TrEMBL record, chain A:
<dbReference type="GO" id="GO:0033185">
    <property type="term" value="C:dolichol-phosphate-mannose synthase complex"/>
</dbReference>
<keyword id="KW-0472">Membrane</keyword>
<comment type="subunit">
    <text>Component of the dolichol-phosphate mannose (DPM) synthase complex.</text>
</comment>
<keyword id="KW-1133">Transmembrane helix</keyword>
<keyword id="KW-0732">Signal</keyword>
<comment type="similarity">
    <text>Belongs to the DPM3 family.</text>
</comment>
<dbReference type="Pfam" id="PF08285">
    <property type="entry name" value="DPM3"/>
</dbReference>
<comment type="pathway">
    <text>Protein modification; protein glycosylation.</text>
</comment>
<dbReference type="InterPro" id="IPR013174">
    <property type="entry name" value="DPM3"/>
</dbReference>
From TrEMBL, chain B:
<keyword id="KW-0812">Transmembrane</keyword>
<keyword id="KW-1133">Transmembrane helix</keyword>
<dbReference type="GO" id="GO:0180047">
    <property type="term" value="P:dolichol phosphate mannose biosynthetic process"/>
</dbReference>
<dbReference type="GO" id="GO:0005789">
    <property type="term" value="C:endoplasmic reticulum membrane"/>
</dbReference>
<keyword id="KW-0256">Endoplasmic reticulum</keyword>
<comment type="pathway">
    <text>Protein modification; protein glycosylation.</text>
</comment>
<dbReference type="Pfam" id="PF07297">
    <property type="entry name" value="DPM2"/>
</dbReference>
<comment type="similarity">
    <text>Belongs to the DPM2 family.</text>
</comment>
<dbReference type="GO" id="GO:0006506">
    <property type="term" value="P:GPI anchor biosynthetic process"/>
</dbReference>
């Protein structure tokens, strides 16, 4: 329950800031109307950018993959000697 | 296999950066430019700057609701 209250408080603060900007007329009014939409679009863009960057930097560890493959073969042989068949190739 | 991942990641980042710069240019810089500058040709009329994101958000919301409803129906059918 407390987490939702925090999020709601944040939303109320942002709306109050936006309405204050509207009333103060520091920025031309057409800008202030478009500002929330602009922030939503830029947040979506930022999310996609982080996903793309994470994909590009994902480490694949080829040596560990080789070791894992050898472990799998060893385990399969061991189990076959014990009588259990787990071969799927 | 990791080359395909890197290519997809690069494509995503390029798309997101270009969308961000296009939208920033559209909403923030274009109203300050005189109306008979040539650069206005490359951007759609300003109403679309509002319509397209709102339409995309509404479509995403509809898709999410449909997906949730579909999953709920499928789980109820499996239980009955």
């Amino acid at each position: 329950m407390k987490h939702i209250l925090k999020i709601l408080a944040l939303l109320v603060a942002i709306s109050a800031f936006w309405i204050g900007l509207l009333q103060a007329s520091v920025i031309p009014e057409s800008y202030t109307w478009l500002l929330p939409l602009y922030f939503i679009v830029s947040l979506g863009c930022y999310g996609v950018l982080m996903v793309g960057v994470g994909l590009m930097q994902f480490p694949t560890c080829p040596q560990e993959a080789l070791l894992l493959h050898q472990d799998i073969l060893e385990a399969r042989d061991f189990l076959k000697n014990k009588g259990v068949d787990v071969g799927s190739n | 296999m990791d080359l395909a991942d890197k290519a997809v990641g690069l494509l995503l980042s390029v798309i997101s950066l270009s969308v961000f710069t296009y939208y920033t240019f559209w909403v923030i810089i274009l109203p300050f430019v005189d109306t008979d500058h040539f650069v206005h040709k490359y951007f759609l009329p300003q109403e679309y700057a509002i319509l397209i994101p709102v339409f995309a958000l509404a479509a995403l919301l509809c898709f999410l609701c449909m997906f949730v409803g579909y999953v709920m129906l499928k789980s109820k059918k499996k239980k009955a």
